[in-house]
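Worked example 2:
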Amino acid sequence: MRRVTRLVVALIMVMAMSASVFAADITASKAKSIALKNAKVSAKKASRMRVKYDGEDGVFEVKFKSKKNGAKYEYEIAASTGTIVEKSVDYKYRKNRSRKKISRTKAMKKAAKKAGVSLAVVMSGTCKYEYDDGKGTYEIKFRNGNYSYEVEILAPTGKVIEYNWKVSYTKPNPAQSAYGYWDDDDDNDYDD
């Protein structure tokens, strides 16, 4: 009788924990509103809105275009928490075939301002100048804590034409996340 009681209690506890995990999941509609709020774009000013659930990574992929400035936004939002784990913005711009360019330091200052970090953080990363497809750009990559950033700046004008960031630990292991560590490889051994 005691074994049956213990089994029933254990089963109830497992069901309660499972219910709390699934209760935290957000809906596609909530993921859409999180992305729109972060982009500061109203639903009326967004076009080509697509929301797709990626069950393997446990994220909602939200994509849309702003009618106001023509920018294309892409987000990955954790389904379990509603946290944005990746953001990418491609800004509309006119090609400028000019070979003139702003200084590397000025480009890095623009990247720091866009990311909301100090210039020292950006300077710890890389900054490469490229002239390709009739446009000169600076490609700036840097890290700050758990975030990695990529910023592309049009060299003749200093305009940010692409901005991406992502959280380094995007794939939590549900079995171990309660203990505060993650398995970051794909072998399912949960050994990291």
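The chain has two domains: 24-92, 93-167. The helical segments are 2-23, 28-39, 104-115, 119-123.
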